[in-house]
Amino acid sequence: LRAHAVDVNGNQVENPIDIVINVIDMNDNRPEFLHQVWNGTVPEGSKPGTYVMTVTAIDADDPNAQNGMLRYRILSQAPSSPSPNMFTINNETGDIITVAAGLDREKVQQYTLIIQATDMEGNPTYGLSNTATAVITVTDVNDNPPEFTAMTFYGEVPENRVDVIVANLTVTDKDQPHTPAWNAMYRMTGGDPTGRFTILTDPNSNDGLVTVLKPIDFETNRMFILTVAAENQVPLAKGIQHPPQSTATVSITVIDVNESPYFVPNPKLVRQEEGLLAGSMLTTFTAQDPDRYMQQTSLRYSKLSDPANWLKIDPVTGQITTTAVLDRESIYVQNNMYNATFLASDNGIPPMSGTGTLQIYLLDINDNAPQVNPKEATTCETLQPNAINITAVDPDIDPNAGPFAFELPDTPASIKRNWTIVRISGDHAQLSLRIRFLEAGIYDVPIVITDSGNPHASSTSVLKVKVCQCDINGDCTDVDRIVGAGLGTGAIIAILLCIIILLILVLMFVVWMKRRDKERQAKQLLIDPEDDVRDNILKYDEEGGGEEDQDYDLSQLQQPDTVEPDAIKPVGIRRLDERPIHAEPQYPVRSAAPHPGDIGDFINEGLKAADNDPTAPPYDSLLVFDYEGSGSTAGSLSSLNSSSSGGEQDYDYLNDWGPRFKKLADMYGGGDD
């Protein structure tokens, strides 16, 4: 504080001085831990002196005095095994460390410590204290190898089966489940030199699943004795006395099953000349049964596939004979090869069967004579360079095909007199006119073609030649050229029918469109179809009898003009909401091409004429729908009278209706002005 000394007049009599007041701390605050529960971990098997965790407390008192100096200690430990003092705490820093050996997660997984913090340097008499809980979890290390639950495991597998589990190996491991220290890995150390088995690990149960990888033949191997070992994914911790792995034996028995017979060889190739007659023995195709230890009868044979139906097989001996002549040129022969499939079946339980393919390679013989191609041709009726190129076609192959010899027969004599043929290559020749002119028409020209086989094969093919009149380019100009070119009369008739049908469809579509347009015009309404309510008016009934409904004369509503025409109505009884009878006012007429400057004048003049027009609606804001007759008991529906009686109405209440009616209040409530 700063103090001043002054006299009664306010004059300073002494220099100001500072007064310092020191607040002396008292131990009025307990220590407070930052967390009420502290969590820490320590690996099992840790040596004494291993750091675990640090707990911290604070005191609001002076930290430089005894009131704020804290000391820590452990009040209790639960559980107390294997020793009640497994941990200790640094009384000044709060560091917790192990003080004894023997931490084993498989026995005690968690310790709970009660920690006390006391001020006054831990004086139990004068110091204030507080407590917190320290939870220490013992973490797992791989200090337990997997151990098989049995020394020998047994399994069995049917022969020729793969991807099946034949044995289930179980192990126990005391380490924490689903950790690398618990997960087991299995491997085979003996008994499977060919790699027919593998062992997979079940991720949930940690069991080993012995699975077949390759087919096993009972006739070759009836039993397997496997040696397997199991170990963890991570190595054992240092200092563990147990062996790192566990071993066991797996005995697997192979079960004999009925197997399918198999043909030997498969496929079987037979070379045979075509033309082998029906009933000839071709070959013997037999199968073998791999089941040597089963009591079965002999195999039975049958035909499974024979596209041309050329063969049959003896069901007992497997001898194959022909039922038709073998033809290399058949459509069922591809690249000189004919394939047939046969079936061999046993009588086992269940019955099994196997298939075999017989491949017959057919050797060509000269059993086909060559033919001319094309069968039809066209030439001009005059002698000019327009020779016909022809080709010899022979289904046989070398050496029973080309080169071919072409010649014309001696009879009839007109053939050689009118035509000549010249070979231009081994397979091709040219036919041309020998005479200068041949009358137009269709001629059959026989051509003798001989192949190069031994013996030779020849045939006489007829070439249909159309002789026609030609233009300078050598093209036919006859009318029937289209038919000769391959477009027959039937095709022309079909084209014409299609054109007629198409024209009829187009005509029907046009007529339908015109008819629909007429229907639309006939049904067109003067109003929008959405506003047409003629079909929406429903007549329910007349509800007469209520109040004074029966006193009205409905005929006046139906024909009001016939009851009391306007022309004979007395002037004094005319309704105020009817259109007054006055001369039509003269509205200004705007010129056809007005100047832009006179638009405002034109609008003002039209507005004045409308204001002064007594015949223009609204008449007292009422619309006249029909005349209901005089003397209505309901009175007038209008609450406003015409301008002739406006002075009798009091419109001052419009001022109380708010700003929205201010304009109306000014018009009617302002008095005469």
UniProtKB/TrEMBL annotation:
GO-annotated biological processes: adherens junction organization; calcium-dependent cell-cell adhesion via plasma membrane cell adhesion molecules; cell migration; cell morphogenesis; cell-cell adhesion mediated by cadherin; cell-cell junction assembly; homophilic cell adhesion via plasma membrane adhesion molecules; synapse assembly
Protein origin, superkingdom: Eukaryota
Residue ranges of every copy of the Cadherin domain listed in the record: 1-33, 34-148, 149-263, 264-372, 371-477
Biased composition (Low complexity): 630-647
Membrane topology: Single-pass type I membrane protein
Record's keyword annotation contains Membrane: yes
Keyword Metal-binding: yes
MF annotations from Gene Ontology: beta-catenin binding; cadherin binding; calcium ion binding
Transmembrane segments: 491-513
Cellular component aspect of the GO annotation: adherens junction; apical part of cell; catenin complex; cell surface; cytoplasm; desmosome; intercalated disc; lamellipodium
Region of interest (Disordered), ranges: 630-651
Keywords annotated in UniProt: Calcium, Cell adhesion, Cell junction, Cell membrane, Cleavage on pair of basic residues, Glycoprotein, Membrane, Metal-binding, Repeat, Transmembrane, Transmembrane helix
InterPro entries (alphabetical): Cadherin, Cadherin-like_dom, Cadherin-like_sf, Cadherin_CS, Cadherin_Y-type_LIR, Catenin-bd_sf
Locations listed in the record: Cell junction, Adherens junction; Cell junction, Desmosome; Cell membrane, Sarcolemma; Cell membrane
Gene3D superfamilies on file: Cadherins, TCF3-CBD (Catenin binding domain)
PANTHER family in the record: CADHERIN-2, CADHERIN-23
Biological role stated in the UniProt entry: Cadherins are calcium-dependent cell adhesion proteins.
Protein name: Cadherin-2
Source organism per UniProt: Chlamydotis macqueenii
